[in-house]
Amino acid sequence: MSSPIVTRRGAQNAKIQTRAMVKSKSVATSGVVSIMGATSATGSSAGSGSHGSTGNESRKPSAALLEAKRRARLLKHQNNCSNMNADTVTDIFSNAVKAKGMQRKPTGLIYDETMSQHCCLWDPKHPECPERFTRVMERCRELKLVDRCLLLPARPALKSEILKLHSASHYERLEQTSGVRDDELMEDLSSHFDSIYIHPSTFELSLLASGSTIELVDLILQGRLQNGMAVIRPPGHHAMKSEFNGYCFFNNVALAAQHALDDHKLQRVMIIDYDVHHGQGTQRFFYNDPRVLYFSIHRYEHGSFWPNLQESDYFAIGAGSGTGYNFNVPLNATGMGNGDYLAIFQQILLPVALEYQPELIIVSAGYDAALGCPEGEMEVTPACYPHLLNPLLSLAESRVAVILEGGYCLESLAEGAALTLRALLGDPCPPLVEHVELPCPEACEAILNCIFTHRPYWRCLQLQQQYTVEELNNVQPLPGAAPLHRVQRTWLGAPPPPDRYPTRDTAPCIPPEVTARKLERLRLLQAETRLSTPPVRVCYAYDEQMLEHCNLHDTDHPEQPQRIRQIYQMHDEYQLLARMERVGTRVATTDEVCLAHTRSHLNFVRRLLGREREELQEVGANFNSVYFHPRTFDCATLAVGSVLQVVDSVMQAKARSGVCIVRPPGHHAESDQPHGFCIFNNVAIAAQYAIRDYGLQRVLIVDWDVHHGNGTQHIFESNPKVLYMSIHRYEHGSFFPKGPDGNYDVVGKQAGRGFNVNIPWNKKGMGDLEYALAFQQLIMPIAYEFDPQLVLVSAGFDAAIGDPLGGCKVTPEGYGLFTHWLSALAGGRIIVCLEGGYNVNSISYAMTMCTKTLLGDPIPTPQFNAAAPRPPTVAYLSCLETLQSCLQTQRQFWKSLAFCSKLPQFVSENNNEDFLTATLQQLNISNDDAQGAAGGPGGDRAGSGVERPSGSKPKVKVKTLTEFMAEHKEALEQEEMFAIYPLKTCPHLSQLRPEEAPQSIDTSAVCTECASTEENWMCLSCFAIGCGHYVNEHMEQHFHRVHHPLVLSFRDLSVWCYDCASYVDNPRLYIYQNLAHINKFQEPMPWTHSCAQRDDSRYDSDANSDGDDDGGGTSGGGGEGGDPNAVATSSNSIFIQLERNN
């Protein structure tokens, strides 16, 4: 039987050279010639001395010949690239080399005590009060955070800086209020704007807030700061071009982002807004700009929550070149907490951020989603905010600016903001006291809707599978099939804006007992949250005695002593050793080794001490990929003991984290035998040791070695105290260690079921992108749900780029990124323990990046290049397939994996509403001067001298039928879509009595039979309400009972005739459709028929039967008794059907 892996001489010969091999054309050409010449000579010599070899061996090409051919192919490819004026030299370790000079810079803090002057003079109980500022600063000083920051002087923004985004009239209007002491006049002015009060100091302090934000961003981009926080007020993210709004006057974050674009020439700025209110002002400024990615998580409740705008929903994705760069995650329920927000970050925000590769991240940090805030009524605990911020600190080379926005519970605001600053300073994320709740259904719906809408624009959002119309209509789905997610839109909205907005008693009324209960919970959480940090950031273990273990018969064996020596030397070269604490090493005791191994196995290895070389070789041949040395036992027990020393240091709070530079590796070692270069299972023994000596109940082992850790899995497969997660190359069981144990469906045994998670790669070539998706979609959600007390990393680096055995492409900075993510768990108690990795350069750079991350240094962000205009690789497609299989398997054990639903391939019938379709396709909300938009000419309030605040839906242009058909001409010709024309007349129209039409039609009315609101219709003869064909069919039953054939859809305002089995579009129907339209959209429906409109609504039945395409009224899809997947164009009498073209 052949060896299960490539080892010894063969592996050495196949090793990839790590230095750049692409040279100039002339040098490369001569190099190929010289290599070919050397190959010929070598082949000739080999041929003359190969009489004792088999025929197959004589025909096998040499490694030199294969390398020469590979270089020739590379040269040919370069010559064929027309855009290559000069050859490019690529160094796969260039980012790791760059990181050598990257050390942590100061964290900046900017604020000004005068910002406490801004207050509401006529309402002392106003929520946006000075205490919001003072309490935050008091808590920061109490935690001794201010002294650790570099304090920055605040400065006012220049007028030219404000005018980059705001209009001159907007600036001058606020400037005119400076120093005005007439409270009555100021209150009157404030009443013209939504949720605004103006103080005599408001103008100066608004300039100071904006200027301070710009200053902070400026210093970060100049490289003088690592990151920073601006504790400022008034807030800014609601402020629009020409309108004060929502306590905001100048848009601090938007102005700073524009400054970064203009003055620092950035091309990718990411704004993350987790204030509970949608930052519509920021969204409008950058809606068309792909240089700014705006991501907002906010309470929405179908538009019934302030600011009550349809543009705050998930389908507002940007316009023009900015399409796909605007993300809204609208939360349609209150009470959402840590699990919901973490899921949003893991499922959407972080994958998109990694693909976008921002050069700067600005956080609009509102804390009104925090527990206790009366405005948001959410339940995010203050300690969760560092967990949201932590993964962002590994992006954009850690250039992150946090800007204070809202937050109106003083206790949770102060604690959340202080813990955010603590995270910026590099302190570990505090353990979450309360167990992370699972994402609620409303959060899952919002996440899946957002993924569905943005899926065409982002490669990282392709994980969910899609379903067809046939699958949707299948009444008997396959057992265990993923649920089908229905993408729906619901708009509740709010009443039209008043002529004057209230200026007093605007705070929400919360029952006192509710407030008291939440404050008590906050006090308990604060008391139980562990904020103490060990004095040493990272400890490490290394001992040169471990170099003695080597293969005496094969000096080129991949598992060689040079592995750890080179790692240690690179740590020294990067000046990391002086910043760490070295723990004393020791050998593990017999009892300690037997925590994971049988005594017979221990004694077997012990008896090898002092054996002869030949005997050791014979013994090693009895095992799978194992060699022995006379000092193997000493080295193996020293490796185990050294890891246990690091466990002691971390668990005794002497160090926050640890690094173990040890060998031989361990994760293949079974409880009763050595295996795959491994003698004793270092990490498994460490986990058992932590459980035994420190009473831990939950230990997480993450194994990213390219080979499956079969030994670790078998040791813990029945133990629910240890969650083992392995991400490895599998190749359908053909990759070492071979067999089915590494597959995704192996989940543990007995009490340990669900505590074994395998992520098996079935193709080579997996890189940073694929591993990052596995972390965010599987590893991190499960880890947060498990809530470990200690994290152990089986850190094999043979998936690194350049490794001779792994065949994968993970970069050193990729490993640093994964380490940073894991460091948010267990209060930062993480230990990275060396396993495999056989390119000494690769493993040295990779482990060095892990250590730099633990020390808090910035490292270059991996260059995923996922947005490059090229088809997805075979590896990426295989990655998606693997992750889908893993999610389907593990979701029965881990409720955080709630996003396995399939998304539709087609546009659902709920997407037919005129305004919503138009918003998605045509709305340009970035231009506040557009007719009807906030601050535009059409918005001026007569006689007031100020502009009308926003609140009503913007005016939008709906596509004509001709435009729509032209856009989809190819799909129509290929029969991927087809048109359904409604009847222009119908013999049953004579049954209608327009003069008896009701005064109004309530489109939210429920079915009179079952009280359903999902898909209701109204009989146009007796005005009865019934549910549709795909609910309980009560409207169809009504037709059969009383024979009233014509019915009106409340969903899309189409009219269906049961007797004709068709849609009908005729002027006689307008009176009914118009009443429904007014109720649904608060405005009359446009008249689109070819005949003149009559006041008496009396038309001939064939009044509109001339066949004119523009003659139809509002059409719809999914007719009662018709096809539910028909999609109507906006205002033309045609239906567009999407279907799968098999």
UniProtKB/TrEMBL annotation:
InterPro entries found in the cross-reference section: HDACs (IPR000286), His_deacetylse_dom (IPR023801), His_deacetylse_dom_sf (IPR037138), Ureohydrolase_dom_sf (IPR023696), Znf_RING/FYVE/PHD (IPR013083), Znf_UBP (IPR001607)
Compositionally biased spans, kind Basic and acidic residues: 1092-1101
Ubl conjugation as UniProt keyword: yes
Molecular function, one GO term: actin binding
Positions of region (Disordered): 39-61, 928-954, 1092-1132
Cofactor(s) listed: Zn(2+)
Gene Ontology CC, one term: dendrite
Pathway assigned to this chain's UniProt record: Protein modification; protein ubiquitination
UniProt xrefs under CDD domains: HDAC10_HDAC6-dom1 (cd10002)
Record key words, sorted: Actin-binding, Cell projection, Chromatin regulator, Cytoplasm, Cytoskeleton, Hydrolase, Metal-binding, Methylation, Nucleus, Phosphoprotein, Repeat, Repressor, Transcription, Transcription regulation, Transferase, Ubl conjugation, Ubl conjugation pathway, Zinc, Zinc-finger
PROSITE patterns reported in the protein's UniProt record: ZF_UBP (PS50271)
Biased composition (Gly residues): 933-942, 1112-1122
Start-end of Low complexity biased regions: 39-55
Localization (cell): Cell projection, Axon; Cell projection, Dendrite; Cytoplasm, Cytoskeleton, Cilium basal body; Cytoplasm, Cytoskeleton, Microtubule organizing center, Centrosome
UniProt KW Transferase keyword: yes
Name of the protein in question: Protein deacetylase HDAC6
Source organism per UniProt: Drosophila lebanonensis (Fruit fly)
Gene that specifies this protein: LOC115629953
